[in-house]
Amino acid sequence: MARILTVQTVLFHESDDAVLRAVAALSGAIGIAREHGLDGEVVLAHGDSGRERLSDEMQARIIELADEQFEYHYEFFGDNLGTARGQNRLAAAWPATWQLTTNPDVVFGGTAIQKLFARSVDATVGALEARQLPVELPKVYDPATGDTSWGSGACTMVRGDLWRQIGGYDDDHFFLHGDDVDLSWRIRLEGYRVVHVPEARAFHDKRIGGSIEPSEIEVFHSAMAAFLMAAKWGEEVDRDRVRDHLAGPRYSKVREAIGLLQAEERVPVAVPDRATVASFNVDGHFGAQRY
Predict the structure, then answer these.
(1) CA dist 262 to 219, 226, 231, 259, Å?
(2) pLDDT value of position 212
(3) 13: burial class by Cβ within 10 Å (0-12, 13-18, 19+)?
(4) 173-202 as b/e: b if 16+ CB within 10 A
């Protein structure tokens, strides 16, 4: 039986309860998709960037929850590879017709996999993005076609042959943020569409209410992604905007890291024809925003 789907997740110090909740939801969603015609081998691949490997007991519980809907494979990386390199390693180990990248705190709705595959028959589509709840991404998508600028790595399904053709995530430059936008724009540069599927719902464990203050790690990697994306996909005005934004005292470590990249000549080269797919906003977002 051909491998139709690899669901791939990079773990990083997740609680056992969170992992099991996501696995149980995935098992149910795969079961419903099979009832609606999904035919082929499915793999759940966990790559672990944490300090301690999952126990044998936990892995046995995951296999039990799989309920024969999918095979389970676990790899302990022994190092924090970041999402880009970790996802690339999983995709290389378990190539499939479709590679579905997910965050460990994403829980699939019952019909999410079914709805994604319902749109996969269109040969013009290179990637399909699920709708994240309770906090939706504010980027624009066409309500009729679903076409959007980029798909979030938290829950996006990419054609496997296309993934391999373009080399997956750019893990030479991206570590934690921006890798999904870069991948999406390279997919679109190949002439394929990135499509948002609002009826494919996935719960992304973000809390509503109050202020959500990003951690220093998130601030650092988000700022690095802004610099790298502007270098690779932007014009001079975009690079100037990022440089001005990073001038404040909060970003001193980011400026040091950028200086090291420049000294070692590891800043990404600007992509030819980038203007046909790239879109930067004055507020730092990628692509047009609905709100």
Answers:
(1) 20, 15, 11, 5
(2) 59
(3) exposed
(4) bbbbbbbbbbbbbbbbbeebbbbbbeebbb
CATH no. for 3-204: 3.90.550.60
- Give residue 154's pLDDT: 97
pLDDT of the residue at 6: 98
The pair of structure tokens assigned to 70 is 């999918």
**pLDDT computed for residue 208 by the predictor:** 62
> Rounded to whole angstroms, how far apart are CA atoms 235 and 149?
17
Distance (Å, whole) CA 125 – CA 147 = 9
Give me the residue spans of the domains in the chain: 3-204, 216-276
pLDDT profile of the chain (291 residues), mean per 10: 94 96 98 97 98 97 97 97 97 98 97 98 98 94 97 98 98 95 98 98 78 77 96 95 92 96 97 95 83 84
* pLDDT tens by residue, 224-235: 999 999 999 999
Distance (Å, whole) CA 164 – CA 177: 21
Edge-to-edge strands, sheet with 155-159: 71-76, 41-48, 3-11, 98-102, 155-159, 125-133, 193-204, 106-108
Q: What is the pLDDT of residues 180-195, one digit of tens each?
A: 999 999 999 999 999 9
